[in-house]
Specification:
This protein is mostly helical. It is 88% helix and 0% strand. The chain is elongated. The two termini are 18 Å apart. 21% of the residues are buried.
């Protein structure tokens, strides 16, 4: 196939894929999660099939069953802890607001008075009388209520609970045949190229999923242990949350450090020593993540430059919203693999012609 035909195929393939993803973006979460988990478990299925010479159905059934038993046990042990820590953090909010009103708000009032701007002398009066806070809180509550009561939200939750195990089982059982059928129904002119592209996509997704899980677990342990040792209120919870949110590039880290600094200020005031320790923990965590974990556990497997990652976050976030941000790295890795494949073939063809 000529380079021109490859480029046309790439453009058509990308447009159709993006269009389909956009159309089903509201209901795509369970399917994306199922594909990611199936991709994660597929090498294990292949290993047991080769080693013990048993049918794929039996191996897929056992692995899916064991996986979900472990998942349920993990949730049963971990979710109550997260729930109790979340409640404790929320219960601390009134105390933090009182502390802010007593220790900091008077300085803010004094600062504004120096530039001839008058604001409420009592922080709680400001919150009560300001339309931004009243409307904003109402809008937030309304948004959350609408989100929770929406049909899409309910369908996604029910799908994750009841349909995902079935999806994962059938994906594992028919993984090879699904790929073969996709290639079979494509025009023969593009079948070879599609097969190579699907191999690249499979490598990109599997490399990202396995690497990202390891990164999240390591960072959750790192932040949770160190913030707990520092004695930060709800430090273990904040650390684990930071680690788990690290799968959302940059945003997860920003949420974690912001939450930790806010809690540290309300707990210790503007103690430079204590705040410095919290910042050091997060600074070292970012260095470890960006310099060691991501390059070795993710970067080498998907071969993606940080600039492409940042571009991918904005690009896919603008198309798919928050879900686009969450899945921006694997989507960018897939796009980069396809583009790299086309241009590598163009370069090799040029060498052969020369």
């Amino acid at each position: 196939m000529k380079v021109k035909d490859k480029a046309i195929f790439l453009i058509i393939f990308s447009i159709i894929t993006l269009f389909l993803l956009y159309k089903i973006r509201l209901f795509i979460t369970p399917f994306i999660l199922s594909i990611a988990i199936a991709n994660l478990l597929n090498p294990l299925v292949n290993f047991f099939i080769k080693k013990y010479k048993v049918s794929r159905v039996v191996v897929a059934s056992i692995i899916v069953g064991v996986f979900f038993v472990i998942f349920v046990v993990f949730c049963a042990l971990f979710i109550p802890f997260l729930y109790s820590q979340s409640i404790a953090l929320l219960n601390s909010v009134p105390e933090y607001l009182e502390y802010f009103s007593t220790n900091f708000y008077s300085n803010i009032v004094e600062f504004f008075s120096k530039i001839n701007i008058e604001i409420e002398h009592d922080f709680f009066d400001l919150v009560k009388n300001n339309q931004f806070f009243t409307d904003g809180s109402g809008m937030l509550v309304g948004f959350l209520a609408k989100a929770i009561n929406s049909t899409t939200f309910i369908i996604n939750i029910l799908s994750i609970i009841f349909i995902m195990p079935v999806l994962i089982f059938y994906l594992l059982k028919d993984w090879n045949s699904i790929i073969s059928k996709v290639i079979f129904f494509l025009p023969k002119k593009y079948s070879y190229q599609t097969k190579n592209i699907l191999i690249l996509i499979d490598k990109a997704i599997s490399g990202f999923v396995r690497g990202q899980i390891n990164v999240c677990l390591i960072l959750a342990l790192y932040y949770g242990i160190l913030l707990g040792i520092l004695g930060l209120n709800n430090g273990i919870f904040i650390g684990i949350l930071t680690g788990f949110l690290s799968f959302v590039p940059y945003i997860g880290y920003g949420i974690g450090i912001t939450l930790a600094i806010i809690v540290a200020i309300f707990q210790w005031g503007f103690s430079l020593f204590d705040l410095g320790l919290v910042l050091v923990v997060y600074l070292l965590g970012q260095i470890i993540e960006s310099s060691f974990l991501v390059p070795n556990l993710i970067g080498k497997k998907i071969n993606l430059h940080p600039l492409w990652m940042i571009f991918g976050i904005f690009f896919f976030g603008s198309i798919f919203g928050f879900l686009g941000v969450i899945f921006s790295i694997p989507l960018t890795a897939i796009s980069a693999s396809i583009i790299r494949y086309v241009f590598n073939n163009k370069y090799n063809q040029k060498l052969n012609n020369d």
